[in-house]
Write a structure and sequence with these properties.
Blueprint lengths: L5 E5 L3 H13 L4 E4 L2 H10 L3 E7 L7 H10 L6 E5 L4 H10 L3 E4 L4 H12 L14 H14 L1 H12 L4 E4 L6 H10 L8 E5 L5 H9 E2 L11 E2 L1 H4 L4 E5 L6 H13 L1 E2 L8 E2 L3 E6 L3 H6 L5 H7 L2 E4 L10 H12 L11 H9 L5 H15 L2 H9 L36 H24 L4 H8 L3 H10 L17
Parallel strand pairs: 1-2, 1-3, 3-4, 4-5, 6-13, 6-14, 7-10, 10-13
Antiparallel strand pairs: 8-9, 11-12
Helix pairs in contact: 1-6, 2-3, 6-14, 14-16, 15-17, 18-19, 19-20
Length: 485
């Protein structure tokens, strides 16, 4: 962090202010915030470490030009980069005459802002600062992810990175859970040690066990040599258990003991191996629901969920879709994307689409756009009814795509948004669960522990379901639930 060079961001629009702050912090600078010219001047008086000002032109109370002139008239000589959506010739000329160092027209890409900041500060990348300015593409990817998470989640993961507690990351398929896990590891005291990942859904339970804990020679057919597991190989570092919700229940018990005892033993072995490994877990599943269904151990859930972070879906961050699309076009297009690929109609269609595959789906769509060079075709597909169906559900000739063409609904996407049939199924399931719980509660005279036994689920899982389904104990013994059951 370049603690001696603070950048002041003066912007009245909250979304733009958040984006500029995110870029500044990704570049390693502290950021100060002001919502208008009056706050900016007060901040400059109070903070002597401000080395650069990023300032909007049109603001309430005191606009950018007036603020800039006041700065120069009072002897403040910090470089000022003016940022404005009103990039007329007259505004550019007036800003430069008033003392602006540079003028950038909105919308502003991460790379353009990065280059302007470095040019204004005549700065060099600090020693050891990898992947920020020497590799802007990977840094941009991280910055986009942080933007989608929001400021509160960013602050949370920075605090989590400094600790050593287990972490549970939840989010839909393709939303960037692994990128976040790697980011936390890279900013933790364990950054110089290994980061290893195991996808619990990609292998059978027996293979997951041998991959995690290793095995001794002769432990099973084909074990011709001994092999350390990922827990051993990650000593001093971090292990990410991806898709933990799909782990076999029997293996969950062994993992729980490893987390509790901080030691393990190889398959076929007798020696206990002490472990110094931080455990992160990621899942797209509803784990409390899985606990209620008997597919996941409640004690393991509470052991893993010391701290939980949810990565929001792309449809929850629609303001960032266009910026992400431009990044993926640059990433796969070897530089600046061809002009006109993101037509106004396509941009609007992208905002209306629900993105069940999240970032991964958006990236694949941008790769296809670079190949076919037909934004009109993608616009039609995004707006069509068939684009919201899985390939298996789409009838031939009704929105389905030919073989070999990238489909927008990836396998395993876990969102039901835009799928009316699934929404009806979910509603029916909700009503059935509500009715079953109310019957058990009535039978036990609203003794919740007894009701949990009747339902054969964990007591805490019952409490969670009651909160989720908004089931409250009624006055006078009458049944009640938000769903009307």
């Amino acid at each position: 962090m370049r603690d001696n060079k603070t950048i002041l961001i003066v912007e009245d629009e909250a979304d733009a202010r958040h984006y500029f702050e995110m870029v500044v912090r990704c570049l390693g600078y502290p950021a100060a915030i002001a919502a208008d010219g009056e706050e900016a001047l007060a901040c400059l008086d109070a903070n002597r470490s401000i080395s650069l000002v990023l300032m909007d032109l049109l603001m309430p109370r005191r606009d950018g030009l007036e603020t800039l002139r006041e700065m120069r008239n009072t002897g403040r000589n910090q470089p000022v980069i003016v940022l404005s959506g009103a990039a007329t010739t007259n505004n550019v000329v007036q800003a430069i005459k008033a003392g602006a160092t540079n003028f950038l027209a909105k919308p502003i890409s991460h790379d353009d802002l990065r280059m302007a900041i470095r040019g204004a500060l005549k700065d060099e990348a600090p020693v050891g600062q990898s992947a920020i300015e020497d590799h802007p593409a990977s840094d941009s990817e991280v910055c986009f992810l942080e933007s989608w998470m929001g400021k509160s989640t960013q602050a949370a993961w920075r605090r989590v990175a400094a600790s050593d507690v287990p972490l549970l990351i939840e989010g839909e398929t393709g939303s960037g859970k692994e990128v976040l896990a790697r980011r936390i590891h890279a900013n933790s005291p364990r950054a110089h040690k290994p980061f290893l990942k195991l996808n619990c859904a990609a292998l059978p339970g027996e293979l997951v066990e041998s991959e995690l804990f290793g095995y001794e020679r002769g432990a099973f057919t084909g074990a011709f040599t001994s092999k350390p597991g990922k827990f051993e190989l990650a000593q001093g570092g971090t292990i990410l258990l991806d898709e933990i919700g799909d782990m076999d229940v029997r293996l969950q018990a062994k993992l729980l003991h490893v987390l509790q005892d901080r030691e393990c033993e190889r398959l076929g072995g007798k020696d206990r191996i002490p472990l110094d490994v931080r455990v992160m877990a990621a899942t797209h599943c509803d784990l409390p629901q899985a606990i209620g269904d008997g597919r996941f151990r409640a004690d393991l859930y509470y052991r893993l969920n010391v701290v939980g972070i949810r990565v929001p879906a792309l449809r929850e961050r629609k303001a960032d879709i266009h910026a992400a699309a431009e990044f993926f076009l640059r990433k796969h297009g070897a530089g600046a994307p061809p002009a006109g690929l993101l037509s106004p109609a396509l941009r609007q269609a992208m905002l209306e689409y629900e993105w069940p595959g999240n970032l991964r789906e958006l990236e694949n769509m941008m790769r296809r756009l670079l190949v076919i060079q037909e934004p009109e075709e993608l616009t039609r597909q995004l707006l069509s009814v068939g684009i919201h169906r899985t390939p298996a559900a789409a009838a031939p000739g009704e929105g389905s795509l030919p073989d070999g063409v990238i489909r927008f609904q990836p396998a395993g996407a876990a969102s039901s948004v835009g799928f009316p049939i699934l929404e009806k199924v979910n509603e029916a399931k909700r009503k059935a669960e509500t009715e079953a719980i109310l019957r058990a509660l009535d039978a036990s005279r609203w003794n919740r522990k007894q009701a949990a036994k009747i339902l054969r689920i964990d007591y805490k899982a019952l409490l969670y379901k009651m909160r989720k389904l908004e089931i409250d104990q009624p006055a006078g013994g009458l049944r009640t639930a938000a769903g009307g059951a």
